[in-house]
Design goal:
CATH class: Mainly Beta
Oligomer: single chain
Number of helices: 4
Number of strands: 18
Distance between the termini: 25 Å
Strand content: over 45%
């Protein structure tokens, strides 16, 4: 094991042994310090994404430290992420999703406005650099499986009145830096940057027990971007509207979720400043039906459906853009795999989850996948057949996860395994990677304090 990794592993174990009483005392004084250190080894054989090494491995580390101080209605929060990776070569898909060293992802002032916006309401505002998890997290999220996270500079307003809750945001998404392959491999430190060249605003409103025990939710987000010096973009101007109905899992009961998202706007056909503008008409649908059995293990079986539109000939862009959404909870791991996201995919699936004890939980899932458009690239693989002659079946994805608390609330082990049996499209498309199988695994150790 390389010396830096060995030292990091020893540090991780030391963090896990920090005494809890000292931390509890700090929190009672109005000051709270918390954090975690995660070490991950991941490997892939049969990479399905175009243009990368077929076989690869990475060691990732992610250190989070958050300090918060509260005095009455005022809260100050600061949080640093240090995300690094070792073992990458020029053929490794190393991006700012893996590396972002010593970055202050949160630094904000929070104010509890209580009932200032009306009797019987609770409200609060956050101003500064924020992490956001909104609604289903399919459009705006701080991804947890990924080694880095999303951060935004701006304002957030939350209002709650009885069963109704609302959130509004106006933010400038952070552009993670550095972003050149050489700087990422060298793990150089550079502060992320925000500007009015990229703006995300909008909000959501939800109401509990709208239909039985189900919560109804509506959201709208606008994302606009434009070219900046030395940073060309697709000049996206996207309006995204969603409607969601969700009944949470309960023992002995059926649970369900349905979310439909419709996206319109404009986008440039390429990064060139003179590229033609295209109108956007795209959509996404997620549906699941589950049942939790009344058992000590809390087994839950669910059926799932996902469809994200893809682009088709005709001059209009139909490829769905998930903006800043997560992918792990619904679809697949990111990291070295990162092949399945909310773009040009049609999939059904089955999932079995269980929690044999407070320390152990896991799931297994099977998901056959097709292209929603046979002429667009499949999901986030970059594999494409513009003629559509390679068919539209991408393959069968089978995955599992196990998590176990080695030291309760302190040190947790996690294993992820995935097997992709490539369908005709991922075997025969012009730029498809060779081989019939993809094997991905990751081992994670997380110490929390």
């Amino acid at each position: 094991m390389p010396a830096p990794i060995a030292k990091f592993s020893l540090s991780l174990l030391a963090v896990a042994m920090l005494p809890a009483p000292a931390i509890a005392q700090e929190a009672s004084d109005g000051f709270h310090l918390s954090g975690s250190v995660r070490l991950r080894y991941e490997a892939i054989d049969g990479q399905p994404r175009a243009g990368f090494d077929s076989k690869d491995a990475l060691v990732n580390s992610r250190t989070q430290i958050m300090a918060a101080y509260r005095s009455g209605p005022v809260q100050l929060v600061a949080e640093i992420y240090d995300s690094r990776a070792w073992g990458a070569d020029p053929g490794t898909p190393l991006t700012t999703g893996e590396v972002n060293a010593l970055e202050p992802v949160q630094l904000y002032l929070g104010l509890d406005l209580k009932d200032m916006l009306g009797r019987g309401t609770k409200s609060g505002v956050q101003l500064g650099r924020l992490m956001l998890n909104l609604g289903s997290r399919r459009l705006v999220a701080a991804d947890d499986y990924r080694n880095t996270t999303n951060s935004y500079t701006g304002a957030r307003l939350d209002i709650a009145a009885g069963a109704v809750r609302a959130t509004a945001i106006y933010t400038l998404p952070q552009m993670r830096l550095p972003d050149s392959p050489a700087d990422l491999r060298d793990q150089k430190v550079a502060l992320d940057r925000e500007s009015f060249d990229a703006v995300l605003w909008g909000g959501l409103v939800s109401r509990a027990k709208t239909i039985g025990a189900a919560t109804a939710e509506l959201s709208y987000f606008h994302f606009g971007e434009r070219d900046a010096p030395a940073r060309p973009t697709r000049d996206r101007s996207l309006d995204t509207v969603s409607a969601r109905l969700i009944a949470d899992p309960r023992a002995g009961k059926l649970d369900y979720e349905v979310e439909t998202i419709y996206q319109t706007g404009t986008i440039s056909s390429a990064l060139s400043p003179t590229a033609a503008r295209q109108s956007v008409r795209a959509s996404f649908v997620h549906a699941r039906l589950g049942y939790t059995f009344e058992s000590a293990w809390q087994p839950r079986l669910s059926l799932e459906f996902d469809r994200a539109s893809g682009d088709k000939p005709g001059g209009r862009n139909g490829r769905f853009d998930t903006l800043f959404g997560m992918r792990r909870a619904d679809l697949a791991p990111s990291g070295l795999y990162n092949a399945v996201g909310r773009a040009n995919i049609l999939s059904v699936g089955a999932r079995l989850e269980a929690s044999p004890s407070k320390r152990l939980d896991g799931f297994a899932a099977w998901r056959p996948m097709w292209l929603a458009s046979a002429t667009d690239s499949f999901s986030t693989t970059g594999v494409r057949d513009a003629t559509g002659r390679s068919g539209n079946f991408a393959g069968h994805q089978m995955e599992a996860r196990l998590r176990y608390w080695l030291v309760p609330r302190r040190l947790r082990f996690e294993w992820n395994g995935l097997l992709l049996a490539k369908g005709r499209f991922l075997r025969e498309a012009p730029n498809a990677q060779p081989g019939r199988w993809t094997r991905y695994t990751s081992f994670n150790l997380t110490a929390s304090f």
